[in-house]
Amino acid sequence: MLKRSSASFRAFWPIALLATAGLGMLAALAGFGGRAFAEEPGRRLPDAAVTLKEKSGLRTAVFAGGCFWGVQGVFQHVRGVTEALSGYAGGSRDTASYQAVGSGRTGHAEAVRITYDPSLIRYDELLTIFFSVALDPTQVNRQGPDSGTQYRSAIFVSDAEQARVARAYVAQLNVAQAYAKPIATKVECGAFYPAEAYHQDFMARNPRHSYIVANDAPKLRDLQRYFPERTNAEPILVGAQPPA
Fold first, then answer.
1. What is the pLDDT of residues 69-96, one digit of tens each?
2. Is 189 a catalytic residue?
3. Which CATH superfamily hosts domain 8-230?
4. The one catalytic residue among 67, 135, 204, 220
5. Which of 157, 20, 6 has its CA nearest to residue 89?
6. pTM of the complete model
7. What pLDDT score was predicted for residue 38?
């Protein structure tokens, strides 16, 4: 299993792929619509049966689905989202750095904090987009070429109502057998800490990066295909370095 422990792997993962898998793996790429590893393809999942009625004013949701570049890139294009910030969730403040999290021993997951306007999009609707196009929720401690607990699939909830809606939707998808395998996504609690500035807006700033082209660009295309009414053409960017 290929494992990435630093940003350098993202820059050179095609070389590692060639070295470990040879031309046979490259031939397999064509069969997955540009995705570098065999994963469940995107789809439009059913709306959540249990919804969340929210008060007016901006709210936040925190989702972890593998490398935060792609998850951030997807939600930066979702209407009603005012910010999508890459970061770390599930561990402590003193280990909330890319170098530390890359060890897989901090308890953190790469995550994205989504700030949204509930008058335009509800929490349960964000969940539907997340499970439909932002990741393969059947994978355990991995997404695409990335493996380790820091790449686990998780929903970090801020209160009991978010937890109730998230758990209900996972159960709904499992009962409906929406995927060929059970949903591996866990509902967790934990503080969120912003990632380093160089990780912010990475997909928007580097659309031709080999990692983005193979692993994350297909997610954005799935958003545009399955949720056209929810898609903004231009991303909402973080821009400046996020506050600590």
1. 999 999 999 999 999 999 999 999 999 9
2. no
3. Peptide methionine sulphoxide reductase MsrA (3.30.1060.10)
4. 67
5. 157
6. 0.85
7. 57
